[in-house]
Amino acid sequence: MIAILSDVHGNAAALESVLTAAAEAGAGKLWFLGDCVGYGARPNECAALLQAEAERAVCGNHDLAALGLIDISDFNSISRQGTLATRALLDAETRRWLESLEPLDAPMPDDEAALFHGSPRDPVWDYLVSPAAFEAAVDLCPNRLIFVGHSHLPFAVRYQPTSGRFTDLIKLDGDWLDIAAERWLINPGSVGQPRDGDSRAAFALFDEERLLLKHCRVEYDIERTQREIIEAGFPQGNAERLAEGR
Ligand code: ZN
Questions:
Q1: What is the rounded distance in angstroms from the CA atom of residue 13 to the CA atom of residue 94?
Q2: Which single residue of 12, 61, 73, 75 has CA 20 to 30 Å from 109?
Q3: Do β-strands 29-32 and 155-160 pair in parallel, antiparallel, or remain unpaired?
Q4: Ion ligand 1, residue ranges at CB < 5 A
Q5: What is the Å distance from ligand 1's center to 150 Cα?
Q6: pTM > 0.90: yes or no
Q7: 167 CA to middle of ligand 1, Å?
């Protein structure tokens, strides 16, 4: 069983709750889809936990921004302020680990699954949320299962090559989803800053033997996390949005 995590964003309390829940559910491996840092006050603890546990990992746009590897002039003012606050917190070990990651994980030839932060079209920036992006993803990536993060929106979209149709079959808080047939585009949602109106930390479990997928949610200490964010000099909005899941 593999725990699929994305968009942790320096939220160590959410990450710890997710890791505990994933272990209790029997996950023995972890795949990480990027954005370890940005928005949250404990980037180094998140990096240390993910570095220790992740079998496969990619970096996200916020990781690259914190490292100074991409231009942040296009970020809105809140993201920019969060990036500067994050840069002030990063330790050498976190920098080293983030610098070692690419925004896509080159799959092995026999791998069923490919990992991207954004999408196969643009692993750093593309939001895999539109039909055009879905089509580009299945055209550009030969792997049967495509896991992405970045939008912070959990989904599981099935692509049927015969009809060329995409069907969203997510079962939130629900049962296992059978992903043994056809091709799938999957986002586990965000650990550290959910944006689908549910404030609980999101992740997914992938049973790679039975080829089943489950989206999961878990509570964590939001109030403490909000205090830490404000104390560390991040924008107030970064704290407020956590309670609303937006
Ligand atoms: Zn993100």
A1: 18
A2: 61
A3: unpaired
A4: 7, 35
A5: 5
A6: yes
A7: 24
